[in-house]
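S.,

Sequence below, as promised.
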Amino acid sequence: MFLDKVDIYIKAGNGGNGCVSFRREKYVAYGGPDGGDGGKGGNVIFVTDEGKNTLLDFKYRRKFIADNGSDGMKRKFHGKSGEDILIPVPPGTIIKDRESGRILRDMSDNQPYVAAKGGRGGFGNTHFSTPTRQTPRFAKAGLLGEERNITLELKMLADVGLVGFPNVGKSTLLSNISSATPKIANYHFTTLSPNLGVVSIYDETFVVADIPGLVEGAAEGSGLGYDFLRHIDRCSIIVHLFDISASERDNPLDDIKKINSELQKYSSELAERPQILVANKIDLGYDKDVLARVRAYAKNKGYDLFMISGVTREGVDDLINAVAIKLRELPPIKVYESDFAEDNYEEKKSREVTVTVEDGVFTVKGEWLKTFMNDINFDDTDSLKYFQRVLRTSGVITALENDGIDEGDTVDIYGMQFDFLF
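The prediction came back faster than expected:
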């Protein structure tokens, strides 16, 4: 089975919480705070696996969650960091943000990509000791790990794409010019998934992708539709095969035009790529008038035209040589740029909050408040003062006042309720 597009969920590990602890040892006076820091959460990292050519591994597993960091401990012991989770994907996989559709990374460079970073561990109370606050009874909570819904889309790394109607001989040609062994049979849609073959000529090599046969109306879902055309998005050259013998279809020139029309509907950029027309099955004979019309069409479009027989190999070597020469003149395989800034994940989280009022209770929500509430020890005076100061400087108090809060009204912030006082 071939799978080339899948949606998955990834979640990096949360950072461990800092520890509140004080040194208590015999004969040690004024031991002071000794709470350790929490460990960092594990990252979610994508890596390329040269041995894979499908996303089938994701058919039954769609969630990937890294380990959380451990909490800090007494005696300034640092919590253990969470293990990273490595996700192998085939070369050429595009990683996209599912909600926006924007590209995060093109895994064509064989470099690992950290798609979700683990949360930083929280500070233990040793960090908050000052000459005037020698017994801090609070610590920092660990930060939440990043999470994201993403789409994995495989776009094979091929230099040349073979296109054409079903049963025109694409698989036969691929088997003759490479060591690929696609299924070959005399019926339509024998090829149900893309096949790759590596062609060697002298000291050069290039990769050819055999795309399952297009049909007229693919844009409307006829045949196999456009499901596999993404695999020639990167191709530098399109090799367009057609049956010059008209053994199955009456009008070879009309077939060429229909395929090019479907390519145009799929992607105008792809339709403008350099194209080589290949008249296959010359061993079965052909009409010279039909060939003349095809030659005129090729000349008008600026396409090269080759006559071959995939069965007898007549003309195949000339075709391979021409493709190799043309590839030297063209830019390398297309690599998709990220639509996100490199430091996107390093941006500070917004301190925006929302306030809703129901039954006289003012409920305040904001992503940053979830972690902030865990930092507060409401039994400690210093920590409580810090809580009040942050609410004021972050704009939470202003937001409550704008919503008409009065003294004595109840405020709820993630389960912690208190009376509002001016």
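Residues 252-266 form the longest helix (15 residues).

Coffee later?
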